[in-house]
Structure formats: C-alpha cells, structure tokens
Protein 1
Amino acid sequence: MGDYIDKIKERARSDIKTIVLPETTDKRTLIAASHILQEGIADLILVGNEEKILDGAGWLDIELDGAKIIDPHNTEKLDEYADLLYEVRKSKGMTPEKARETLLSDYLTFGVMMVKANDADGMVAGACHATADTLRPALQILKTAPGTKLVSGFFIMDVPDCDMGYNGTFLFADCGLNQDPGPEELAAIADSSAKSFKNLVGAKPIIAMLSHSTKGSAKHPLVDKMVEATRIAHEQYPNLVIDGELQTDAAIVPSVAKAKAPGSEIGGKANVLIFPNLDAGNIGYKLVQRLGKAEAYGPMLQGLAKPVNDLSRGCTWEDVVGVVALTAVQAQLV
C-alpha cells in the first residue's frame, strides 16, 4: 500500500462515514471489513445472515467487532425500503410485491436503498459481481448528482517509483462504464475527472485527451473525436487545464511533449488521462497495474448523487480497504 492511500485513510478517519458492504459471502470482503474496523477508517454495515457472517469470520479467524449486521429478511426497515423502491421505480413497472422480492433477493439493491434512505453514506461492491450488476441499482435509484451530465468510471492509479503525474499518482477515465463516449460525453468525463482528482488527490488536475495521434500526426475519425472533445471541453469548461489529442508519451513525458507537441499547455505533465473508449481505458489501467506494479483503486464512480463504487473481480482484500477509504472521503464531500 502506497503513501497515497495512507493519506486517504487519514482523511476518512477525520470524519467517519458509514459504508455498506453487501458481498458478505466473499472472504476478501470479510477480511477487508476486519481491517477497516481495526484501523477506524469507516463504520460498516454488513448485509446478510448474521450467523453465516459470524461463522465466516470465525473460519477466517478475524474479528468483526463494531460492524452492524443487517439481514434483509428480519429488519424492521424492509417495508420502508420496499415503499421507497416502489416510489422511485414505479414509472418503470415496479410493483410493491416486486420491490420487496428484489430487496430480499438482491443485496446490492438493498445496500443502495440504505444509501438512498440516508441509513448509510456509501456502498462498495463488485468483488463477486459484474460491474453492470453493481452499477445498475445505483444508477436507477440514486440517479446523477445535480449539474452532472453523465455518470462515469475512473481509477486512481498509484505508480511506485514514478516521477510522472502527481508524484506517480494519476486518474484514468473512463475505464469502467461508458463504452464508446462521444465528444460531448468525453468533455463531461474530463470535467468530472478534474473534480475527482482535485477532491481525492488534492492537486491541480492537468488533463490529456489521449489518442494514437498527437496534434494531427494521424488522420482518422477516432482522432477527430478526441480533437472535438478537447474543443468542447475548452468551450464548456474553460477553467480546465486540458489538451488533446495527445499520445500517452506526449501527455506524460515533458521531453517527448517538447518534440511532439511544442506549445502544448500541459507540457507532458498530465495527471488525468482521458481514454477514447472503454477498450483503451480498461486495457490501459490493467497494463499499468500488472506490469507497472501500480495500486489501482476502482472502478470508482463520479457523477452519482451519493457514492457507490465498484471493485474489480480480481481485487485483493487490500483493494477493498482502499476503495472503502476513498468512498468514505467521497461521502465527506457530498
């Protein structure tokens, strides 16, 4: 674990938030929960059968003292959550019966309802669910934050022994949600990513719109998309420090920027990298994580009314601890 996540944990401890963990049959979740409680990073709500959760903790030889365990099948809040879910989704065909049945069978939806009802400040899931299963209830129930055009996914990448980015820390977007965003969406993702970087890293965001081309070195509709996205970003979000289209080396290496993009306002110092599509973003973050030995925290979500974050199914328990700490800090800023 790098210095970056230690600082995030400190911030999380300064104003304790309550985070829901619904995947209590996953041992990484339980091990992470015991560490989160020991380190005082967040208050936790574990969703599931109390006996099974405590049996799991016993088998793993961990303590879960201080965690609140809520079983959807015997909570007095079930009717309240079912009514709320029905209200939020009735225009989409939800019935009171279906709402109740969903809450009893889908713990991720139950967790999101706890956040919606202000019984928790955020949720982290995805260790054993696909991204779509984690995000669907969040998008349907919590909706987007005021003034946000779309919800997008990002990773905080903490690269060891790296003098690029902000002391080796970068934000990569979108690596988890929007498959082929258009220019307007890419500009909105850049704006959301700048806010997330400032909030979670505490440094000035310097944004590169990435491509296989730098300043017209190649001609292709994919290049045009990033040029147009950069133009829209300059127009709609004039406060951003942003440039594009740039190849990755021109975005993050000052000497390459000098040669390939002289006069670029970011000068090879980018710390927020906006990828042209989900293929590039997902491939890019995994290469940096696996080959560059980077800590990868996410996919975090930006643009939701309240924080719900996804985990990669290849995550470790340490990753879960990191994402819970980041979610708690996001919740402080809502």
Protein 2
Amino acid sequence: MNLNASAPGMARRRSVLALMSAPVWLGLPGAARAGAQIEEPLADAVRNALSAAVSSGEPPEPVFADTDSRLHYLRWKVEMNTRLVARNSDLKTLQHRDEFLQTLWYDCKRARLDVALVLGLIQVESNFRQFVVSSAGARGYMQVMPFWTRSIGDGDANALFRMKINLRFGCVILRHYLNLEREDPFMALGRYKGSRGKPAYPDAVQGARRRWEFGA
C-alpha cells in the first residue's frame, strides 16, 4: 500500500482501498515531538476490534507468497540495518536492529501500512529511542499515549516501552486513524500528532519518509 502524500500546496491524495477483514481495523534529536493524540470515544465495535488487534499474540514472523518477495524483504532488512547504524540510534546491536526491523515489517504489513512512512514517523516521533517520554507522556518508539492501554489494552502503560508492544500499538492506532480519514495520510498523521488539519507534522513525517524508501 502506498500512502505517499503529494507535495506541499498540491491537492492531497485519497486512495480508496479495500478494507481489512475487520472494517474497523483500524528524526530529530532532543525531546520527542509528538504524542498528543486526543482521547476520543470509541464505539464498542471499534474498541473490540482494536483490542483484538493489539492483543493478538502471534509471533512477528513474516510470511511470503514467493521467493522474490522474501528476497526483497531480506534486501530491505540489510539496507535498513545499514541506515539505522548510520543514525547511531538506540538500536545498538545487530540482533536488536534485526528484531526491530522484522517486527516493524510484520506489523506494517499486518496493518496495511507503508513501512517507509512508519519509519519516517518513528524518526520524527522518537528518533528511534525506545525509552523516550514526551512532555505529554507519550512513550517509546512510536510515542503512544498511555490512554490507549486503558482504552484497548490491559492498562499497563509501562508495557509501551517494550518494542513489540509499542510497534503493535502504534501501527494499529495509525491504521485506525487512516480508516477514520478514508486513507488520507495528511489527516491521519494530523490525528496521530493531535494537530489534525495542520501541515507541520504530516510534512515532517513525509519528509522523513523519503529517507527510508527502498525500491530494490
């Protein structure tokens, strides 16, 4: 799925894509930038679907339709590992980077998200720092607000510092916002920041996204 936004000043692109099986399935150094998502009432059906999405315990093992797809993934992982090393992020060891990239790939594909977009979002949100907390209280790589653990999780906000839980919540939340905004990344990213309709945050994420594109 391609969630590229058009250049600033141009009409934002809306793509009408098939919904997932459940219709509601829904960087920079210094302080974390985002994490001001607004806590909004959730319909019971949405809450239940989101809860199921974050609580699923299957291992993040990518499955590929053919050899070419698997080789593309392996080439992507090698290249992204190199780029993460160059960023001198908190992902210090090869094992940690490998786990991070595999989990990210899996959860992005699971939620029908563009992997480069999510990497750009993580760069802007936390600059790939696992334990960072924003001034609003958002936590971890994808700067997830603690209220989400009360709304659709088990209430343990400290679990958001765990890589797999943070990436799972962040991807599920972004997919939820994309569903609400009919696949408009500009508006969905605004919701993720808590600044819906304002260009600064979506533009920053889309700018960072271009640094994580991979076409091989």
